[in-house]
């Protein structure tokens, strides 16, 4: 019995790896969050597709496990990479009682990388990836990580910068980072990566406080060495870069 | 005039996105580090391929720029993602004097994600990516980042954990992290991701001090919540996970 957890990349068939496509093609059933199932529906005509609404992650995993137990080869899909805030972790947890099901994770392109490509080259040096969602993590923990990352001059990539209930979290995060970094640092916003209405914008850390974002937005904040070149964010690979 | 910087993913055609393949197919010339050019040589019979040895990154960029200036569509390839310690940043820097050349970065799967998939689900919560190479970054800066990441309980992914000249850097990094984290934390090592001799190993932070690594190794260190499930590293998505 085999259960795959597959990263679809940022959206759109051209960002799904041949490995992921091969796995999805060989599966009897593909399960996932409704929005992602809808994105790939036309790629798999006739395939059994199971979708569940947002926030029902554990239910989604149980659905996939039931299918596997009944003898089907199943793929559970995530957008981006299956591991980065994706379904891989909760799948391992949920399938704990079913050692007879073999689990394999298939990597995809995560938003830090697909968003980074649109913004230029912000991730050419050390970076921290932080989710601003406090659904499962206390805000104090998120704040401590923002502080640590800013203080140590990491490039910072923010996932889940806002939701309906958390409209001011990006402003709060920016304020925290500005305790240690200049408000003039280059920053970038990417929306709806890999979809028709994909857009990106290069701005500054200070300006992030005023920019509306949603759950389909990824935010990038440069380190002290990040510059703007051709309107894009470019982080040098090191601190002695100029001398080489 | 168009110059692409393309991430090949971890190695092997099945991890190259259709988008990246389409770009490489349309290019007149593909340039890159010898090892990566050799990996894709058979995928592009008849294509003009230019390879340069390691450490000649700027020369490689200049080579690609010359080709673009002479009217060719050029792709410069990186392994993994083109942005994460890849060639995208140095390309933007080197091409500064040539605004007539349009640059586009094409994302690929970075080792944090491909390695993470092999190790289970280590990146399901906030993580820091740190390179242990001190060729362009002072060791003090690397040490400060290791400390900050460990103190704030990030999952930590280490790139370039060693080279011929830096055989003890992983041991030093592990010692630094152990000032703040337990030596019992789950840790993982992935070697030669996506190649024939790919291998992975789950171990502990303390044990990392004794494990030999090279430049084709990626190292993952869990956070305080990371567990071993089925011999794999699994980081829960949050700190209130058990209660949901």
UniProtKB/TrEMBL annotation, chains A, B:
Q: Which Pfam families match?
A: TP_methylase (PF00590)
**NCBIfam families per the record?**
cobJ_cbiH (TIGR01466)
In which pathway does this enzyme or protein participate? Answer: Cofactor biosynthesis; adenosylcobalamin biosynthesis
Taxonomic lineage from the root? Bacteria, Bacillati, Bacillota, Clostridia, Eubacteriales
List its EC numbers. Answer: 2.1.1.131
User: Gene3D superfamilies under this entry?
Assistant: Cobalt-precorrin-4 Transmethylase, Domain 1, Methyltransferase, Cobalt-precorrin-4 Transmethylase, Domain 2
Q: Does the keyword DNA-binding apply?
A: no
The answer, when asked if Nucleotide-binding is one of the entry's keywords, is: no
What protein am I looking at? Precorrin-3 methyltransferase
**GO molecular function terms attached to this record:** precorrin-3B C17-methyltransferase activity
Name the keywords, alphabetized. Answer: Cobalamin biosynthesis, Methyltransferase, S-adenosyl-L-methionine, Transferase
GO terms classed as biological process: cobalamin biosynthetic process; methylation
| Domain Tetrapyrrole methylase as annotated: residue spans | 2-208
């Amino acid at each position: 019995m085999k259960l795959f957890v597959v990263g679809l990349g940022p959206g759109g068939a051209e960002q799904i790896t041949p490995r992921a496509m091969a796995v999805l093609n060989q599966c009897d059933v593909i399960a996932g969050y409704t929005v992602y199932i809808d994105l790939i529906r036309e790629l798999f005509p006739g395939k059994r597709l199971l979708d569940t609404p947002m926030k029902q992650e554990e239910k989604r995993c149980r659905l996939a496990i039931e299918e596997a137990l009944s003898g089907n080869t199943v793929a559970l899909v995530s957008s981006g990479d299956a591991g980065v805030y994706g379904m891989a972790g909760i799948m391992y947890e949920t399938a704990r009682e079913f050692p007879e099901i073999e689990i394999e994770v298939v990597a995809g392109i995560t938003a830090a990388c697909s968003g980074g490509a649109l913004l230029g080259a912000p991730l050419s040096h050390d970076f921290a990836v932080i989710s601003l969602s406090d659904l499962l993590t206390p805000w104090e923990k998120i704040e401590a990580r923002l502080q640590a990352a800013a203080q140590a001059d990491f490039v910072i990539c923010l996932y889940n910068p806002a939701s309906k209930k958390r409209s001011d979290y990006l402003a709060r995060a920016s304020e925290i980072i500005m305790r240690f970094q200049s408000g003039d640092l280059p920053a970038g916003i990417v929306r709806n990566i890999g979809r028709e209405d994909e857009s990106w914008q290069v701005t500054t850390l200070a300006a992030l406080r005023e920019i509306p974002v949603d759950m389909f937005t990824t935010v990038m904040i440069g380190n002290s060495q990040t510059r703007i070149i051709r309107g894009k964010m470019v982080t040098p690979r090191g601190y002695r870069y100029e001398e080489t």
